[in-house]
## 1
Amino acid sequence: MRLVTFQTKLTDTPPRLGTWIDGDQIVDLTAVAPDMPQFFEQNCIADAQGYIERTDLSDIVFPVADVQLLAPFPRPASLRDFGVFKTHMDAAARITGKEISPEWFKLPNYYRGSTSPSSITGHEAVVTWPNYTQKLDFELEWGVYISKTGKNISVAEASEYIAGYTIYNDISARDIQFRHMTLALGPAKGKDFDNSNIMGPCLVTPDEIGDPYNLRMIARVNGDVWADGNTSDMYYSFEEMISFVSQSETLYPGEFLGSGTVGKGCGWELDRWIQPGDVIELEVENIGILSNQIGEPEVNPAEWTEKGL
């Protein structure tokens, strides 16, 4: 299934659960489950399929053009972003002059990202240009949501915990990010700002994704291809990531694990920088296209300008 969380554009309605069918139609599934977390907590996939088969859809179907697609889980239970693409790591080593740590080949590495209501957004949302950056960047990633509670999960059984896959654009303020990371605590305001974690346009369940480790990934800026990669470059699988994170730590439905950037999947690697008004399209085979426009820079308060922000 291709599951979505959406709002209608005609009225100020609460978010609804839906499924994307026939190319351009969204079927309302709130009669099956009120939202994405309960859909997976109650294992409603079979119920949803039966509901669609026996229901007159005429009153509960919407053209995609008439809805606003939110992030599949508008409030993920957590967000962990890894860095598992070898080509991207090679580029980082080349740019920084620092060799890849031997530990990278032994342990999947990640940081905890923001899941605040202001940071998570979806398809066609306008990207915030923070008031403290001159170098805003996109990141072509994808990721998985956890479907059920588990702990100390083996790699062999980890696929049972994947609710589905989505595209992830990890918007980054590069100049402040690299300043923060000299302080050894993480990217901080380099990643944390409104609409900085973009997910969508849908969640594709594993039965429809095909081979997850042979999917083409493309990034376009204003229609121009900036990146063209493949999920086969992942050094660690999602199953390995899930197993690693779950050791002595309970995972819950709705937690999100991002892959990190595919090789050449960001402006920093290419030394090409997006500008206000640009349209970023991230495409992952068998999922779709996640599209967003870059907003205008916000105004920086004088007191933080004086402090060097």
## 2
Amino acid sequence: MKDIFNLKGKYALVVGASSGIGRQMAKALAEQGVNVAVAARRVEKLEELKGELEKLDIKCIAVSCDVSDEESIKSCVATVINDFGRIDILCNNAGIDLFGDFFTYSTENWDKTMDTNIKGMFIMSREVGKIMKEQNSGRIINTASIGGRFASEGNIAYYASKGAVINFTRALAADMAPYNVCVNAIAPGVFDTELTHDTLDTPFGQSSLERTPLKRFGKDGDLDGILIYFASDACSYCTGQTIFVDGGVTMLL
């Protein structure tokens, strides 16, 4: 019987891998035998992660990348191709979350959020997409959020950007379908990560927990299954989809 989930020997680029969900994704892929290029701004964090992943007997490279800078993205992709020769899996995970009252929310913070959360995803996907087109194969996995389906006060740019990720995923799936590239998104609920940790004990965090049917926050490993599915041959006929991994929050919406 063919192992349709087998990823051993594949090559992945995980963007936003220095912490949180991106770090979890890089580790999950490496545990499946995938050679991983980890990219982010904080190179010292990447080097630490590289050391951990290489213990899994895979090849890992750490690449500096600021997804708000187009030239940095192009340089990152060129470095990965120069070393790996191909990219089978792209995980677009870089993101920021800048809270603020709507009436005083700065245009600078709006632009910074959009540049990181959606514009950078577009440019990275375009540059890697050119490679996957030539390969006539590939998987692109975008990180959305439950914030792409609902919203509340005080976080307008983040919610807008994550809503954009979901529809960007659909549009990109249509553009890449002729080249045997499947494009899907994972929409996590509230996970205990570097980005969210300080909010978990706040009224916002506790109300989020109360709205979660499974009555816990997401933890390391909870995204591994859907990530491996989207990255594998098992996902050969699934594209343009967003799967919510949120403890059941969105089933109540």
## 3
Amino acid sequence: MAASGEGDAVSRRGTTPLTLDDLERHPLKGAAVALRADFNVPLYPSGTREPAAGGEVADRSRIERTVPTIDRLAEAGAKVVVLSHLGRPGGRPNPALTLAPVARCLADLVSGPVRFVPHTSGSEVRKAVADAGPGSVTLVENTRFLPGETANDPALAADWATWADHFVLDAFGTAHRAHSSTDGLPRAVRAKGGMAVAGTLIERELAVFAAVLEEPRRPFAAVLGGAKISGKIDVIEALLPRVDALLVGGAMANTFLRAMGMETGTSLVEEEKTSIAWEVMAAGAARVVLPVDCVTAGEIAAGAPTRVVDRAAIPPGEAVGDIGPVSVRLFGEYLAKAATVVWNGPMGVFEVDGFGEGTFEVARIAAAAADRGATVVVGGGDSAAAARAAGVASRISHISTGGGASLELLAGRELPGVAALSGRRSDREA
């Protein structure tokens, strides 16, 4: 297995971005600041309690985490113009994915009123910005209603830059995407003499991951789960030389078991990746910890009969849907000793009744580790959802707002959205 061997995490990430502290050294009263936020939130249809497109915001936590940046800019007298996407409309308008409900939610959270503009670019947006006063907050329509957004169209970035004096990135969940609003726009703003800086959310995310990757308190344990080893092999290679224990769960553990020559039944297995799994185990030796028992069933479905079996006794006609109770205790022993924990990916199909206990128990154990003073960082996406479902989210040291972005950082890669910001010299050059 290839070693990470490209220098430390700092040098791989490049320069340290400037922040709001740097931006506030410039006159902001009346300046138009384009703020890229991540308001890709679940919505309730009006009159229901089930998350779906349209209606009202079902979970406003992502919005809340950008409010400090918005308020800080507005209090400095800037015209704050917020850009965000919602869902995957495919580059064309979709009334079910309008940001109008987000505007109503945002208005309840920020200090002043919020104006919603039902356009994303062009003269309507330019006029709205021109008419806005110092300290105002404006939210424009879904950026992904435009095909140029995901294509990183320079013309779209240039259109936004006509009214933007400065740019602030506070969308960690999309910082790993080189889109017009995350990459093209900050570069266009810088080209015209403006600043492009990290907001408070981005600054916090980068600081947390820098701390756990560069100077983790030890023992350092990483918990990786999810479906496929192929999606996390770079993360594994980057983390393995750094951690004291790498705990592997989820369907990706099946590929490791298969590499050991074990029966995996009808479980999801990446046969073509078994050689990589074997190399990981050889390189990591005792630091790589696999499940020792599993929850299996004839089908992964709510209400399906399940059984707990040793990992060497998985029935040929059944699939693994979760780690077993002995594995939970084994993982718990490592987490109980850890001073730093990074968790990304569930231990099983936790969203299906009967296959979630392993994931929820790991969430509870991680929360207990945080309670006793360990630094516990949970990646976005499914891991964050599992922590919330287990009722322990408030006890976790840090829950990231970006699953894909957190994986990129853990793999030692630079995020395109961060690379596009105004930056100080890298630590390597300082």
## 4
Amino acid sequence: MTNTLYDALIAPHRSNDSPFLITDSGNTVSFADFVRRAAQIAHALQKNGVTPGDRVVVRAPKVSETLALYAATIQVGAIYLPLNNAYTAEELTYFINDASPTVFVCEDCDVDAMTPICDGAGAKILTLNADGSGTLTDAADGQSTDFETVSRGPDDLAALLYTSGTTGRSKGAMLSHKNLLSNAQALTELWGITSADRLIHALPIFHTHGLFVAMNTSLLAGTQVRFMGKFDLDMIFDEIPKSTLMMGVPTFYTRMLGDDRLTKDLVKGMRLFVSGSAPLLEETHEAFEARTGQRILERYGMTETNMIASNPYDGARIAGTVGFPIGNAEVQVTDPDNGNPLPAGDIGMIEVRGDNVFKGYWNMPEKTKEELRDNGFFITGDLGVLDDEGRLSIVGRAKDLIISGGYNIYPKEIEDVLNEAPGVVESAVFGVPHPDFGEAVVAAMVMECRQADDAPLKDFIAPKLARFKQPKTFVFLDELPRNTMGKVQKNILRDQHGR
């Protein structure tokens, strides 16, 4: 039987005893050990009712067992859905109800809060903790290290990742085996990733960058991975002399630049630093090159499309651009009003078509039709411009999105929570430049009684929103600026309160 993604990424390593994951504790997991553990977890999933096409929702720590759970989910023919560890129980309720998983995996400490939610959705809870213990691993222990891989084709779903617009509810992007594999193949070839590389991996594994870009390419190429539980400067600087490759978000690089240990001598063995998930400031590009002699490679992608474009590995990496389309991806810039392609040099809506583009939104056929054209082009919601050589630059976001520390933050979700707080008339949430996080969340508030104390608002939203979504600053106003159509002018708010 064939299983498109498993056969390419995992099956080839059955007899590969080379080191794969080196953890914070110093433990080393070989590729062969990883394949065997994935098979045991596949048995555990199957015994807990997971069948082909079922969803496995995961909110678990970044440990090797979690990565093996991803491989196991693919092997049993199910659909992997990772969720941000910072989400509150209230936030998780929507995802679980919408995805209707067979199994939900979380830590022991979350079971009490999640039980009524999972019971209501008909999902069984299994646990996985930071030390690798839990009912999932208990169920896997003692199982056969061989598993008859379930057949899945290129167009079958492999993953479901939730993204969100500025209006309406969160959307589940349906990603096929072909979507994920084609992108991993294109990136591995473009960036020259091989089994001779050692990757510094300090990203989360619940989103596209850390899981599909970093881990899928590593599995495809047989790359050794220094698998860090989180970004830690001491660990990063300790690992750089032993490694060749690093993938990160702009925050990683600004924090490295703030430390005197970052020198040309330190990075002499590194061949590539990659940045994504948020715009990299030109000054960060230039400062990093001046300090290290290396120029960061910036790329561009999104949940629905995987990676769309990348600066070249060989060739000019120009600050402020995201390079050229990768693989068989086609990029066009169109007039937002009519969808007609625009000539080079004109700013418009970025659209993309190719094997990397998702199959649509889970349970949202109308939203799929709205954003995925009949000709296969996906309307990204980002504004950009192509130069005469086909190099893409992002100039803004049509969708009112904030990217802070590599995380996507959607203002309407925060506004909906804030507007429920006592004394709030209305709110407007927006992003402003931040030297470390890229952007910081600011909330402009109109209150029934004018005030300057933001403590009650912070207390109200704390249990309702993940910490990275919570505004860093509250601005209290008599009224929000609006245009003649009554739309809040967030550009004015950014200009007035962006420093």
